Amino acid sequence: MTGTNPALPANRLLSVDALRGITIAFMIMVNNNGSDGAWPFMQHAAWNGMTATDLVFPTFLFVVGASIVFAFEARLGKGAKRADLALQTLRRTATLIFFGLLVNGLGGAIYLFPAVPFDSWRIYGVLQRIAICYCIASFLYLWDRKPLSKIVIAVSCLVGYWILMRWVPVPGYGVPGRDIPLLDHDANLVAWLDRQLLPGRLYEGVRDPEGLLSDLPALGTCLLGMLAGMWIRTTRPLAERARGLAIAAVTLFLTGLLWSVWFPLNKKLWTSSYVLAAAGISTAVLAFCFWAIEVKGWRKGWTWAPLIFGSNAIAAYMISELLPAFFVRWHLTANGRPSDIFHWCFVNLFAWIPSPGLASFAYSFAYMALCFLPVWILYKKKIFLKV
Questions:
Q1: Distance (Å) of CA 114 to CA 105, 203, 207
Q2: Please, what's the largest Cα pairwise distance for the chain?
Q3: In this predicted structure, what is the pLDDT of residue 63?
Q4: What is the pLDDT of residues 151-165, one digit of tens each?
């Protein structure tokens, strides 16, 4: 492998792959901090608010939406039928959900034997949310490939979700903002509905950050990415497309901040203001990647690792989530107490760094680099995990 960009299929846009790779790399880092001493931006906001870590998942969904445009247009351009693409979408959705359940059952337990008991197996998850949004967005694109319908549906999702969370009474609690605090931790419509549907299977016991109802605004995130992809595919000059992305980024971010006055930013509830603010930053990073790679032609050196991660993102995520399950049975001793190999590595290789935040960041980067190695090997052997 030289410093030049790796060859990618013609239906892939390098700037989108670079954004996907940057996102999955940062996702792996923030999911594996090594200790509680991580810098604030490397941790999720406790409830309301938004950190850099809270931007990872929505950016990935944003990229999914953009990728749908390029993938479907390439297939349709080769004569594929919409019915065939619809069946392929259903197969991919089922595969993603299967992978998500596998991660929950093995990676979530951190033990291969015994696995998580089925009656407490978490059903919701990151890949499950991606699957749902991908499926609905794909069918919407096959139904109508014009941007207006996507704008209308995205706005309806965000405004409709705001109405549900602000004005619909939560059974047993009352009306948010009047009888109970708006976006109360437990007394909110998302958490209440999840407790009725899947008791004992929620990530946080009485609530889940990937709850069913919050898939509605998450679909809005995916559709905003789709609109970005549709804009990039126009015949306008490259510089104009980059400028349009930058203007959209500022508009989305400021609109999200304004809406947060009445509907706070909240990643765990995926509030509508959070969708817009996060999409603004995702669009800004995409605008930079598009300008640097497609407009300026900066295609050497710095794009190498992001493009490898981005071309095999599902494999990278699965590896990062399942590695602990395979190594947890290696029992070692750290500070005189039994420990798994990852905690032992942090204590013996990174904890000596005076700054707890820097120590945690160094561990996160090392873990991400460890996950990169098998992805790089897969890339060199031209093996890509597709769904």
A1: 10, 19, 25
A2: 65
A3: 95
A4: 999 999 999 999 999
d(CA 199, CA 211): 12
Helix-helix angle 272-289:147-167, to 10 degrees: 150
Give which of 6, 4, 2 is closest to 375, Cα–Cα. Answer: 6
CB atoms within 10 A of CB 44: 18
> Cis before residue 117, ω within 30 degrees of 0?
no
CB atoms < 10 A from the CB of 362, how many? 16
- Residues of the chain predicted below pLDDT 50: 1-11, 108-114
DSSP label of 337:
E
Query: Coil, strand, or helix at residue 195?
Result: helix
The helix/strand/coil state of 187 is coil
**Beta-carbon-side half-sphere exposure of residue 312 (alpha carbons within 13 Å):** 24
Alpha helix (H) residue ranges in 204-335: 215-232, 238-259, 272-289, 304-311, 313-327
Q: For residue 343, what are the CA distances in angstroms to 61, 81, 111, 283, 332?
A: 31, 51, 15, 36, 9
Query: In this structure, what token pair is assigned to residue 213?
Result: 């109802």
Instruction: Output the average pLDDT for the chain.
Output: 88
Helix (H) or strand (E) run with residue 332 in it? strand 332-334
